[in-house]
Amino acid sequence: MVPMDVPSGTAAACNAAAPTLNASSTFSLREGGEMPIVGLGGGIFQDAESAFASALEVGYRLIDTAPKYGESEAALGRAWTTSGVPRSELFLTSKVGNVGYAAALQSLEASLAKLQTTYLDLLLMHSAVHQPVAKQPRSKLHAENRLATWKALLEARAAGKYAREKGIALQAYGGGGGGWQLWKKDPNLDLLGRAPITAAAKAHARSPHQISLRWQIEQGLCIIPKAATRAHQIENRILFDFALSESEAEAIGALRSEGPLSLYGFRDPDEYL
Ligand SMILES: NC(=O)c1ccc[n+]([C@@H]2O[C@H](COP(=O)([O-])OP(=O)(O)OC[C@H]3O[C@@H](n4cnc5c(N)ncnc54)[C@H](OP(=O)(O)O)[C@@H]3O)[C@@H](O)[C@H]2O)c1
């Protein structure tokens, strides 16, 4: 695996670093270990075991799963143990809900058993907001905690504690328009149909998906696009033989200012409340 140069933040700086990256590049984590910058989102698939088997063949080594994703963990356990890929070459991510100390430990043990492994490479809180009871509708406290967390993150960034300089990887999910495809509620959420993305897709002869993922890579993000279709799995790794121009990257970034575009409802907390 090729360690990733941590980009310094601007699109131009990332573009300059881009030729050194490829689909197998990794981010060197501060506490040790290498995290692949391109992984597979292992959400709910119709045939998860086939999707994971295909992804491992295509070359994915990071797979993001969670107890909440139905059969995903067990299917991944079966897929990797029959794939011939050694555990040491895999980077397995799973999650625990905000369920309290004892339940979190139980959840982790259950994940390990389903994944047929003795350790995880990354364990995330799913999600890092207050969720006292699984499936409970978002409460005011939930929203308040999310707002407080968001403000803490903004303050941390203003105070110079953000992740890039400290060797902490930022990983983006949903960058392939998943929320839009999942909910199809609001055409305004169809980010991949927006002019800056379709124009760049035409200019580079790439799909809107590839433009979106490439933009994220150029922002210094690690990505976990979800794809069950093998052609998509392959396409989502072909991101390193072209670069967005500075104006293309800026135009895509400016989509943020057009309103509440988040696919997952992580909107401006002030507005959300
Ligand atoms: N930590 C968290 O709280 C959290 C929350 C949400 C998601 N996630 C993670 O992030 C992952 C990705 O999020 P997401 O579910 O929103 O998915 P996404 O990556 O935004 O989009 C997935 C959808 O895009 C399609 N697709 C993939 N590649 C494509 C391509 N090249 N061209 C056209 N369509 C393509 C997929 O179709 P096919 O399946 O047919 O290929 C699927 O319908 C999840 O699986 C999960 O692992 C984490």
Automatic annotation (TrEMBL):
PANTHER family, A to Z: 2,5-DIKETO-D-GLUCONIC ACID REDUCTASE, NADP-DEPENDENT OXIDOREDUCTASE DOMAIN-CONTAINING PROTEIN
Pfam families: Aldo_ket_red (PF00248)
Annotated ranges, domain NADP-dependent oxidoreductase: 46-161
Keyword annotations from UniProtKB, A to Z: NADP, Oxidoreductase
Site (Lowers pKa of active site Tyr): K95
Signal sequence extent: none
Entry's family note: Belongs to the aldo/keto reductase family.
Superkingdom: Eukaryota
Record GO terms (molecular function): oxidoreductase activity, acting on the CH-OH group of donors, NAD or NADP as acceptor
InterPro entries: AKR, NAD(P)_OxRdtase_dom_sf, NADP_OxRdtase_dom
Presence of the UniProt keyword Protease in the record: no
Protein name as it appears in the record: Aldo keto reductase
Residue positions of the active site: Y69 (proton donor)
Annotated positions binding substrate: H126
